[in-house]
Design goal:
- By secondary structure, this protein is α/β, with parallel strands linked by helices.
- The protein has two domains: 308 residues, 3-Layer(aba) Sandwich (Rossmann fold); 127 residues, no CATH class.
- 30% of the residues lie in helices and 15% in strands.
- It is built from 16 helices and 17 strands.
- The strands form six sheets. The protein has a seven-stranded mixed sheet, sandwiched between helices. Strands 6-7 form a two-stranded antiparallel ribbon. A two-stranded antiparallel ribbon has the order 10-17.
Length: 491
């Protein structure tokens, strides 16, 4: 029992705070690793803290690679399209480690081609999706894996990687991206999971699919099979306190004092912290500020629901109008445009646009558009502003020891928002890294890993969208019912 990493035994609030504040120490026992589609290296930072040293990173955007290299200084950075540069990435690793295989190949492939926005486009057919080169990027991982034979491979993307059907660029075979990738990596056992990161103590509702491949012949595979586990950490949190887990970390708990200095978008002075360059927000003037201020604090409501006229101060219950029916004034406390020569109209948007975050749930998903007021539920629960880049980074559990700097100095707030929104939370990759390191080292961590019958464990061969959703609902109902029955006290 003493050999199991203590962080896998239970959620330690004190250690979690130390981790996010950048005070937690790196593990001293190191295993070699390689990063692909690395972005700014944020997700890999958690693996680094868990005991992996990255000897190479690849990224197509130079400003992201500069941040990555500053935070992973022992790795050789390789700039360019990985479809062309993967032999150079392999060579960079071998320069440092020779023929020794990596313990971990981490691949956080881009998700833009799999986003819901493109799901309804002209690329929605399998052949159309195959013409979007971004959807074929995960297959490059198989080329690197064949050359280096890593002991474990981790592929991360949005959940639609399981249901998006394309043609394999080598064989022409039609199938789901994850299904075809698993077929290519047939020398590995495949463990897919769709993670809700709030279930692991991340103060944010964020879903991603991870596929962990472990090379056949690793001794831990037999143990995982025997004990009915998969190579992921056990969950520590749930929507409510049940199954022996803690409740999710709520937005009002995470954002409340004294965690962050109070800000307000009304002026330059009120919109920034003098002590933290990343804790600042855009300034809104006039009607735009009033639109935010009119949303009741802690209501979780949208500006579309602002129900009074700022001109005559009378109630306007109809949320579909942009003009007061009483005095005919434009309802500037709602998201409207006022074209020349025409009446005002509401801005077309989702129901969650221009909306305050709900205080009694974790922070909503941090995206690359976290700086846009009209993006999905991006307004602070009770203050009149959006979240600052610092709050977004902390919601992603990025340790404050992570440096947002490139060759020319500190990164702009816009770049920070972009790389933070693209990342996978380092707290989760830290826990996942501890689990993988323990398994690869033959340590007795399996009782503290996720159960193989958990409702978040996926199958790569269920790639039809309707069948996949049905499978997920059935699995969740079965798992939750079984857990509730097991916890019932006999009369």
């Amino acid at each position: 029992m003493a050999r199991i990493p203590r962080e896998l035994l239970r959620f330690d609030r004190g250690f979690f705070i130390a981790f996010t504040r950048g005070h937690a120490r790196f593990s001293q026992r190191r295993l070699p690793a390689l990063g692909a589609f690395s972005g700014a290296g944020i997700g890999d930072y958690g693996y680094r803290m868990a005991g992996f040293t990255f000897h190479g990173h690849s990224e197509i955007r130079p400003e992201r690679l500069e941040i990555c290299h500053r935070n992973h200084p022992r790795g050789r950075p390789v700039l360019g399209d990985l479809r062309l540069t993967w032999p150079e990435v392999v060579g960079a690793y071998r320069e440092r480690m020779g023929s020794a295989p990596p313990a971990l190949l981490s691949a956080m492939s881009p998700c833009q081609g799999l986003s819901p926005a493109s799901a309804h486009s002209r690329l929605a057919t399998p052949d159309g999706r195959s013409r979007d080169g971004r959807n074929l990027l995960p297959f490059v991982i198989s080329d690197i894996a064949r050359e280096l034979r890593p002991r474990a491979v981790v592929v991360e993307n949005v959940p639609s990687i399981l249901t998006t059907r394309v043609r394999d660029p080598e064989t022409g075979e039609l199938g789901g991206i994850a299904e075809l990738l698993a077929a290519r990596l047939n020398a590995y056992r495949c463990f897919p999971i769709t993670v809700q990161f709030a279930d692991f103590g991340v103060p944010q509702r964020r879903q991603r699919t991870l596929i962990t491949f472990i090379r056949r012949g690793e001794r831990c595979l037999a143990r995982l099979e025997t004990l009915g586990r998969v190579p992921y950490p056990a969950k520590t949190h749930d929507r409510a306190a049940r199954f022996g887990r803690l409740p999710w970390i709520r937005a009002d708990e995470f954002l409340g004092p004294p965690s962050f200095r109070r800000l307000d978008a009304s002026s330059e002075t009120a919109a920034k912290s003098p002590r933290d360059a990343l804790h600042r927000v855009p300034v809104y003037e006039g009607d735009r500020y009033e639109l935010v201020r009119a949303i009741p604090p802690n209501s979780g409501r949208s500006a579309y629901e602002n129900d009074f006229c700022p001109a005559c101060n009378r109630a306007v219950r109809d949320s579909s109008v942009a003009e007061c029916p009483n005095c005919r004034a434009a309802l500037y406390t709602r998201p409207i445009v006022h074209p020349k020569g025409g009446p005002p109209r509401l801005i077309n948007g989702h129901a969650s646009s221009y909306q305050r975050m709900v205080p009694d749930l974790p922070v909503g998903t941090i995206t690359t558009a976290s700086g846009h007021l009209g993006s999905d539920a991006k307004i602070h629960p009770w203050e009149n502003r959006i979240l600052s880049p610092r709050e977004c980074a902390d919601a992603q559990t990025i340790p404050r020891s992570f440096v947002f700097k490139g060759r020319r100095g500190p990164c702009s707030g816009g770049l920070v928002r972009e790389v933070v929104g693209e990342a996978i939370p380092p707290w989760f990759t830290f826990l996942h890294g501890l689990a993988l390191r323990s398994l690869l080292n033959g340590l007795a961590a399996t009782p503290h890993l996720l159960a193989a019958d958990d409702y978040d464990v996926e199958r790569v061969d269920v790639c039809d969208l309707d069948a996949h959703q049905s499978y997920r609902r059935r699995l969740r109902a079965t798992f939750v019912g079984a857990r509730e029955r097991s916890l019932q006290v006999p009369a």
